[in-house]
Design goal:
Number of domains: 2
CATH architecture of the largest domain: Alpha-Beta Barrel
Oligomer: single chain
Radius of gyration: 23 Å
Helix content: 25-40%
Strand content: 15-25%
Shape: elongated
Order of helices and strands: HEHEHEHEHEHEHEHEHEHEEEEEEEHEE
Structural class: alpha/beta
Number of strands: 18
CATH topology of the largest domain: TIM Barrel
Mean pLDDT: 95
CATH class of the largest domain: Alpha Beta
Low-confidence stretches: none
């Protein structure tokens, strides 16, 4: 490994090196975040949340990057959502004071880790329950540790709705969980209701589900079953957060319930799965179009053309180990030829990645296209969650393509 690669891997002092992507100062492939686009996306989402009087608890599993958690919190986020006790431990170790584990925690070691975190008086920690068995296991772990824990009852779509998810589906299941929680009074505190609407296929089903969640949390508050004030109602992934906001804004305005939205992909956004989702938000939501330029894709993979084995195909040194491919293949966005171009140039619309191997991408061309070995391509991605998790360090570059930061991930 070269001294430069060692410095990059350590992430120490890189911003002061004035390395530039176009000058060949960093090894490729590289995951690169646009500083200006991230800043824009943070401002855009804050404007959206403020317009509805809600709070934001973005899902940290997207990036698992505490440096990015910090930026989200500085931009007004209530706290950070995670999916596992291990992820919660990472967030807590990096100073996140409010953590929502939007999942059931099961398994002896995981429960012990959770109970240890809950014992920290400086940490506001919540997790989910959806069964008497889960309640009992969680309660025993907290009782053994001598601590209390706020829990959210997870709702699932009703039996006649499509989509399968953890959570209680019927009134009878909800009653059983409430009865189980009664047995752990003083150890587990009912804090409110959680749901995830992303498994549902269309707007009508999502609205129906959110209205049910609003009704249930309101009823539990009225009945005096919720011990946290205000009670929490939380849902919303990165596709339907606008619908959740519309359907829950009224209960939030009442003051007895705090609504937390949990989109995780807005910071980096993408040019695939979530570009399409955001187009839906802009079509149906009355607030989003008025916030100006919408969310912008901020994460790209930069890679070098390695071979052009025939006139209609190039091979790029980027593969499955570098970029997500579960929700669409990466799309070439710009091309830069060292020694010729001052800035990256847009690429022909017909250039297309047709397949990936572990470390190679196949790029379809047309005979006569201007592409050469050594050219540097930047690729837009689809589904940032499964791109971030392939990188221990992600570069942050300004609009002059100078590296201004290195973000470390903890997957």
């Amino acid at each position: 490994m070269s001294p430069r690669e060692i410095e990059l891997n350590k992430g120490v002092g890189v911003a002061g090196q004035r390395w530039n992507l176009l000058a060949g100062d960093v090894p490729f492939p590289a995951a690169v975040l646009s500083e200006s686009r991230m800043a824009h996306n943070l401002d855009w989402m804050r404007g959206f949340i403020d317009a509805y009087g809600l709070a934001l608890a973005p899902h940290g599993k997207t990036t698992m990057a505490p440096a990015l958690f910090r930026r989200q919190l500085e931009a007004g986020a209530w706290g950070i959502t995670v999916a596992t006790s291990q992820q919660a431990q990472v967030a807590a170790a990096h100073g996140v004071a409010r953590i929502l584990i939007a999942n059931q925690v099961v398994g002896r070691a995981n429960l012990a880790m959770l109970a240890d975190l809950a014992a920290d008086p400086a940490l506001d920690l919540l997790c989910l329950v959806d069964s008497p068995a889960g309640v009992a296991a969680l309660g025993e772990a907290c009782r053994t540790r001598g601590t209390t824990l706020d829990v959210l009852i997870e709702l699932a779509p009703e039996p006649d709705q499509p989509g399968l998810r953890t959570g209680v589906r019927t009134a009878e299941q909800l009653a059983a969980v409430l009865e189980a929680l009664d047995a752990w009074h003083g150890v587990l505190r009912i804090a409110g209701i959680e749901f995830y609407e992303g498994v549902l296929p269309d707007e009508a089903e999502v609205r129906r589900f959110v209205r049910r969640a609003v009704d249930v949390v309101g009823r539990l508050v009225t009945e005096g079953r919720v011990e946290r004030v205000p009670a929490i109602l939380t849902g919303a992934g990165s596709a339907w957060y606008d619908v959740v906001a519309e359907e829950s804004a009224a209960v939030a305005q009442g003051g007895a319930v705090q609504v937390l939205l949990r989109p995780g992909c807005y910071l980096s956004h993408d040019d695939g799965l979530y570009r399409v989702a955001q187009e839906g938000v802009l079509r149906r939501n009355p607030v989003a179009p008025g916030l100006g330029v919408p969310l912008q894709p901020a994460l790209r993979i930069w890679a070098v053309v390695q071979s052009i084995p025939d006139p209609a195909r190039a091979v790029v040194a980027m593969g499955k180990r570098d970029v997500a491919f579960d929700a669409g293949l990466p799309r070439p966005a710009t091309c830069f030829r060292p020694g010729r171009d001052a800035l990256p140039q847009s690429v022909p619309a017909h250039w297309e990645v047709t397949g990936l191997m572990d470390q190679h991408a196949y790029l379809a061309l047309e005979p006569g296209d201007d592409l050469a070995v050594g050219d540097v391509l930047a690729f837009d991605i689809s589904h940032p969650c499964l791109t971030f998790d392939k990188w221990r360090r992600v570069l942050v570059a300004d609009d002059a393509f100078e590296v201004v930061d290195v973000v470390e991930t903890f997957f």
